[in-house]
Design a protein that fits this description.
Number of strands: 6
CATH superfamily: HprK N-terminal domain-like
Number of helices: 5
Order of helices and strands: HEEHEHEHEHE
Distance between the termini: 18 Å
CATH topology: Udp-n-acetylmuramoylalanyl-d-glutamate--2,6- Diaminopimelate Ligase, Chain: A, domain 1
Radius of gyration: 12 Å
Number of domains: 1
Shape: globular
């Protein structure tokens, strides 16, 4: 599934990384615990679904080599987060939907989970 398809299905807005909108996402992982994100060990193109909108999220994804982050519950990306994401060529998406609803929609569209 492409980043643009994901954004469309979850009423999302790509706030950074528009040039990557046709790139595929192979699986998703939903968490607000960055310690759990650091345990992910896969070579697949992962998308993190989270409600934790701060610089630590971007840094954690940088270390975990996650290039697509979907912020749920109407969380907004700050200017600092945007700049750091640009430096790391990450895609940032915002949606007003809850993590539960977002995950359910993507699961029903057959986007694979990490676990």
């Amino acid at each position: 599934m492409t980043i643009q398809e994901i954004a469309t299905h979850i009423s999302g807005v790509i706030v950074e990384g528009e040039k990557h909108k046709i790139d595929p996402v192979e699986c998703a992982f939903a968490s607000d615990l960055m310690s759990d994100v650091l345990t992910i060990n896969t070579s697949k193109r992962i998308m993190l679904i989270t409600g934790l909108a701060n610089l630590q999220t971007i840094r954690t994804c940088e270390m975990s080599e996650i290039k697509v982050i979907l912020f749920v519950r109407g969380k907004k990306v700050s200017e600092e987060m945007l700049e750091l994401a640009q430096e790391n060529e990450m895609v940032l998406i915002e949606t007003p939907l809850s993590m539960y609803r977002t995950s359910g929609i993507l699961f029903n569209l057959e986007l694979s989970p990490v676990y």
